[in-house]
């Protein structure tokens, strides 16, 4: 009996001790919540923004965001055209590996089963949503496999088009009538020729409000998702595709007023600039804009630059709406924000207009990232960055496993350490010229270009705008040979098909 009582007392003491341990033991740390992602990517935006050091423009939202984030001054796209660039950074692959070297090709056909960035986040429990231009077109978009929500808006009807339509319908009936459709299409093209650009790229004040533009709708939709917590209890990956400043250069009237034509600033090029450059380095898009190679048209250049800059100030105001909504949602401190563009853009530099160029103005992009707890406010980095680094960076920062196919590098070691230049020594960009490619390599001080009919070499320390090609100089022979060897190695790396 005594033994039984002792056993009972021991059991009771053990239970009491166990209960006390549960009560007074330190609480187990909760699993930290996953970081959210807000990815903002513009279309055809070059480095004419305040954080990139371009003074003549007004981008207060980006200036404020950069003051809270880390800006990378040497960030480059991998292909200076929308479709190939987006296929590249959305997959984390160089264009030679995606197989997308024009705006028609689709990575899902050239490289089946490659997982895209939003698809990867969705597969790992994120609520994914996108607005605007993210993949190149609706046809190229991954759809439900990548997104919980995906929306593409259109501009409201332009006032000049509405007035013409109302007059037409008063005389002929509805434009939807079969007998009226062809006549109306012809008239609409005539009425909106300058703004919509049937032959030359359109530009000018749209007559619409911010909210009537597709980018105004994009920003307001993202703000709505954030404020209404459409993501529920899931971490979110939200991508905001800003369509401007892509042509036509349309923006609400008030943004044009910020840039009087006589205040536009640019540096004219010398007429014989192209005498020392490979012919295939140029692209003839300048003809559609109404220019001639080697000849300046001051009045027309000012008009186009005014319109392009008006578009940038317009989208800056829309970006402010998105960032304000993120703060109001309570997720400012647990959301990684990345801002960039798909490639740069020529505005008469080197007498060129548009994209498809390997000059820095065509390939360099603004790139700003805020990673709470890592980046330091208002810091600037000179490290070499490629857009294919976005995918691995975001997986690293959110703790997700990185797909094995990625060719980019995580920027995490550079975040909060703006003095570091990182392991990446060169940024690599390609573009097609017929069946062949043009290649560019950049490091901290030099840019090398290799074309089917020649080479380029620029000392960026003394010639940051790339106006003096040194490739034909005898003293450049050793440096050229060095770049040729590096390029040969990089080409093999870029085309190596990781699976």
Low-confidence stretches: 14-31
- From the alpha-carbon coordinates, what is the Rg to the nearest angstrom? 27 Å
Please give the oligomerization state of what you see. Answer: single chain
Main sheet attributes: strand count, strand direction, barrel closure? 8 strands, mixed
The DSSP helix count reads 15
* Physical arrangement of strands within the biggest beta sheet: 4-3-6-1-8-11-2-12
Structural class: alpha/beta
Plain-language structure description:
The termini are far apart. The longest helix is centred in the middle third of the chain and has 31 residues, at 298-328. Mean pLDDT is 93; it is low at 14-31. A hairpin with a 3-residue loop joins strand 14 (436-442) and strand 15. Helix 2 (60-67) packs across helix 12 (298-328) and helix 10 runs parallel beside helix 12. The protein has 499 residues and is of the alpha/beta class. The strands form 4 sheets. Strands 4-3-6-1-8-11-2-12 form an 8-stranded mixed sheet, with helices on both faces. A 4-stranded antiparallel sheet has the order 13-14-15-16, with helices on one face. It contains 15 helices and 16 strands. 34% of the residues lie in helices and 18% in strands. It is globular.
Write the layout of secondary structure elements.
Elements: H1 2-24, E1 36-43, H2 60-67, E2 70-76, H3 82-91, H4 95-98, H5 107-110, H6 117-123, E3 127-132, E4 149-151, H7 159-172, H8 178-191, H9 193-197, E5 203-205, H10 214-227, E6 236-245, E7 249-251, H11 253-256, H12 298-328, E8 335-341, E9 346-347, E10 353-354, H13 360-363, E11 367-370, E12 379-386, H14 390-398, E13 427-433, E14 436-442, E15 446-451, E16 454-459, H15 477-495
Parallel strand pairs: 1-6, 1-8, 2-12, 3-4, 3-6, 5-7
Antiparallel strand pairs: 2-11, 8-11, 9-10, 13-14, 14-15, 15-16
Helix pairs in contact: 2-12, 7-8, 10-12
